[in-house]
User: Fold this.
Amino acid sequence: MAGYGLTTSVGFGCSTKSTSEETRDSTNTVMQTPKDIFFKISLAEWSLHRMLQDKKLDHLDFPAKAKNDFGISAVEYVNQFFFDKAKDSAYLTELKKRCDDNGVTSVLIMCDNEGGMADTDAKNRKQAVENHYKWADAAKFLGCHSIRVNCFGEGTREEVAKAGTDGLHQLSEYAQQVGVNVIVENHGGYSSDGQWLSKVITDVG
Assistant:
């Protein structure tokens, strides 16, 4: 992910200098900050979900908030906070402009409440897959490299795994055409079992 990380350096040693000498020397010490930090981070919008839910922060202001308050130059959106704007070109253009104005990179969109990707009913699963198309399109427009989806469904482990493999395969085919990745989160239910989810992803092909 893009963004910034923090590094700290702590040292211990012995000194024969008097306290007054050490005090004088400490005023001349300058903290050295590395120019190029070896890793970067991005800020997930959910980190500020209470502010957003309480209307103390508008979704459009999230990129500037990340940059100006936290010094983070990459953001991960949550679709819940602009749920009806996925196809609103004017809104997305404004969001992209605010990112550009603040030197912020859009990394991904976390997608929730769009149906079960592993719904064992084929019709419902297909609808869930298609519900995610607009978010793949929005992600591409904003410059994101991925969308994050869930793999939820009801049934036995085997039934949900088979349905999840199919749903994710369908979505991945569309996302490939758009030019974005699909990331699946271990986010509850069977998906919280790493071995189960790993097999589902492997079986997608």
Summary: The radius of gyration is 23 Å. The first helix runs from residue 19 to 26. The mean pLDDT is 87.
